[in-house]
Write a structure and sequence with these properties.
single chain, mainly alpha, Ferritin, two-stranded parallel sheet, 10 helices, about 65% helix, about 0% strand, globular, binds fe (ii) ion
Length: about 270
């Protein structure tokens, strides 16, 4: 096999720099293919992700209160829900590739394996690109497309607050925000099936099963990093949760999925 022309971190940066949805998805798939071809990581420390990943002109980003909320009984209501989920998946592509690029150097400095870190998060980001495709396929089937509805920027804003801190990013992105998806997705699957949209329900089931693995990946790295830093994982998690995303972790929790992902109960039910 001939040597790949770009490194894994360069491939990951291309994802962050791609604005158009089809270009971002293609860049994510390309990074995953390079990874399968055992492309090199390149010099760690030479790479800095863009402050903010490139995004398409649409959807317009608005405050959460201005995002559409409609019942699932109508086709438009289902399209609005699928659009909101698609937007989360689109953000999740950037969050995973930003994790790989931004924090590979910090992982290396701790004496942990940066190659493993980067490949783990490229694999997550490639899942997110596939999820975005599954959801936009359903949205297209309902006559809509990504960009039709306004969306909010909360996910990226939460991530941006932790751009200088690997431990905090692991707490906020996979262990709190992605884990929140595990709590709410089974209810959405049931509702979509109840209104007869089994295909959308099936797409969400695939996403749900994958997301357990993403939370598990975050938990593994969080524990490794805490151990290297001589920090207690539970105390660290609770401190960073309060500092960056107070009030976000709210019951009811999906204990089955959280247990499968290896999330300690003391992280989210400390009392
Ligand atoms: Fe996802
Ligand atoms: Fe995910």
């Amino acid at each position: 096999m001939s040597a790949p022309s770009i490194t894994l971190l360069e491939a990951a940066i291309r994802v962050l720099r791609a604005a158009a949805p089809d270009e971002k998805v293609a860049a994510a798939q390309n990074a995953a293919l390079l990874q399968e071809a055992a492309a090199s990581l390149g010099e760690i420390g030479e790479y800095a992700p863009p402050d903010r990943p490139a995004r398409p002109q649409q959807p317009a980003l608005v405050s959460p209160a201005q995002t559409p909320r409609r019942g699932l009984g109508s086709q438009e209501g289902r399209a609005a829900l699928l659009h909101a989920i698609g937007h989360i998946e689109f953000n999740a592509i950037d969050l995973a590739f930003d994790m790989a690029v931004r924090f590979a150097g910090a992982v290396d400095a701790l004496g942990l394996d940066p190659r493993r870190f980067v490949t783990d998060w490229i694999a997550v980001g490639s899942d997110e690109a596939r999820h975005f495709g599954l959801i936009t396929d359903r949205l297209n089937a309902l006559g809509g497309e990504y960009g039709d509805f306004p969306a909010h920027d909360g996910l990226w804003e939460a991530a941006a607050k932790t751009r200088h801190d690997l431990t905090a990013r692991l707490v906020v992105a996979p262990l709190i925000l992605e884990a929140r998806g595990l709590d709410v997705t089974p209810g959405m699957i049931k509702k979509l099936a109840a209104v007869g949209d089994q295909k959308s329900a099936d797409a969400l089931q695939i996403i749900y099963d994958d997301e357990i693995g993403h939370v598990a990946c975050g938990r593994r790295w969080f524990h490794k990093v805490c151990i290297e830093q001589g920090a207690d994982p539970t105390a660290t998690f609770l401190m960073l949760k309060e500092k960056y995303v107070p009030g976000v972790l709210r019951p009811p929790f999906n204990h089955t999925a959280r247990d499968q992902a290896g999330l300690p109960r003391l992280f989210y039910e400390p009392n």
